[in-house]
Specification:
Elements (H helix, E strand, L loop, with lengths): L2 E7 L2 E6 L4 E4 L14 H23 L3 E13 L7 E13 L3 H15 L1 H7 L3 E10 H7 L1
Helix pairs in contact: 1-2, 1-3
Length: 145
């Protein structure tokens, strides 16, 4: 796996993945940025969310669960002093589908956290990581609309 980051101007950087996808990162104005892109540490959290969501959906689909949506909301706290590492991370999953098994959802999240999501395992080594989840039945969601 490869990636490249190039300084653009001020505190803006362009990141390019080995697969050819790009993203702009920028700092806050008080750090010399223009707030035109995502912060690098935010990107780390988004990567964590993407990694675990990918796992959870894949595990549920392989378990023949009728999953139709997965949202992971992440809240994190950082250390006060440099290096300002994450000290606490909470991931709140909302899994939507038809008659989803609560036990299978819990198992999928646990497997992602402990075995499959590299980002979870790495960040969990330095930060207290907690998880919660809500299951929404698509039939109930459709009836409310």
């Amino acid at each position: 796996m490869r990636a490249r980051v190039k300084w653009v101007e001020g505190m803006m950087f362009a990141g390019e993945s080995g697969s050819g996808h790009a993203v702009i990162m920028d700092g806050a104005p008080e750090a010399g940025g223009r707030n035109l892109g995502i912060r690098p540490m935010e990107m780390l959290l988004i990567g964590l969310g993407g990694c675990t969501a990918f796992d959870v959906v894949l595990i549920l689909k392989r378990g023949r669960e009728s999953v139709t949506d997965c949202v992971v909301e992440i809240e994190a706290e950082r250390a006060e002093s440099d290096p300002k590492v994450f000290t606490r991370i909470h991931l709140a999953y909302t899994i939507t589908g038809r008659s989803l098994s609560s036990a299978k959802v819990e198992r999928a999240i646990k497997l992602s956290k402990e075995k499959y999501c590299s980002a979870s395992v790495m960040l969990g080594a330095v930060a207290e990581m907690t998880h919660s989840w809500t299951i929404e039945d698509e039939a109930d969601a459709g009836a409310a609309a």
